[in-house]
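Write out this protein's structure.
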Amino acid sequence: MWREVVELSRPKNILIASLTVPLGAHLALDGNWSSNFILLVALQTTCVMFFMAAGNIFNDISDIDIDRIAKPHRPLPSNAITIEQATKIAYVFSLLSFILMLINPTTHQILIWVLAGLLMYTYDMGPQTKKHGLLGNVAISLMVGAVVLYGAAAVGSLMTPMALYAAGVAFFANLGREIIKDCEDMESDEGRRTFPMKVGLMNARATAYVFILLAIVVLYLPHWLGPLTMNQLLFQAPAIFLLMSLNGPLFKGEDYIAQQRVRMGMLLGLLALVVEVSV
């Protein structure tokens, strides 16, 4: 059963989340780590990994009817694991995340965890924002940006400009990616009114590209306003090139290629910020 639990948890997404917590902490600390911060950030990274795993499992439980058509090989629609088992495991992961969050927390850290928990709950349950188009995309993207800020909050430096810039990049890039993913999944998204369903595929792709361009603008701001220099913008060249080149695959309707490039571009941009504050 644990193999199915790992698959439901989406380890690739969890791995990315596990990188953004220390990334946020590194930007907040301006690269000046101590042994106490290393242990604290390691614990809070584990907290976020459990949180993400729980959220991904709840999402698969909510999407089981869609996955029976679009992804019948997934653990839940294939009956490799029952809904009851998956629900219990998701709640255990949520509890473990909550316990780890309470280890020497800051006020901002608690607030971010609670806000992210509300966003996760209302995405799949209650109001089910996932069924309300752009609102659901914004909710997911806020959680992605919050992970960066959580890392900064864990070391007591939430309002550090570099951490805020990084969270902004993550938010806008992921918002564009979520819209593109909805374009990719439009035929199988029964029971939902996604943004592409409301405005059409080409309009949705164009909107996604605008959000991605906004991510590039936010990536540029710390070089223009400080604390980074314009010369350091060279480190962002791969990310900027990758994100700006998305108009080609988007125009051709190559949504899978586009959304994968957005994720890679976002990671390259964030990692470049880490390099820039370290040199």
